From TrEMBL:
InterPro entries: Ammonium/urea_transptr, NH4_transpt_AmtB-like_dom. This is Ammonium transporter AmtB-like domain-containing protein. It is found in: Membrane. It comes from Geodia barretti. Residues 1-69 form the Ammonium transporter AmtB-like domain. SUPFAM superfamilies: Ammonium transporter. GO terms for cellular component: membrane. Keywords: Membrane, Transmembrane, Transmembrane helix. Gene3D superfamilies: Ammonium transporter AmtB like domains.
Amino acid sequence: MANAVSATLVAVTGCCPFVDPPFAILIGPLTVLFYHGGCYIEYLLKLHDGARVFPVHAVSGFWGLLCVGEYGAPL
């Protein structure tokens, strides 16, 4: 559970200057889905990472970058 919260913070922190608050609230629950998908990819590739660094930082960070383009306010 703590890793899912950390993944949400990673995704929202990267796009917080560009995203309106309602979209930031939407990004949080969607990030958890991407986090669990990253855990499944890690399982399929037989990567043994006890800290779950790949799903928390790589997958959630990439999702945060996509959210800037998708939900970001025009400048």
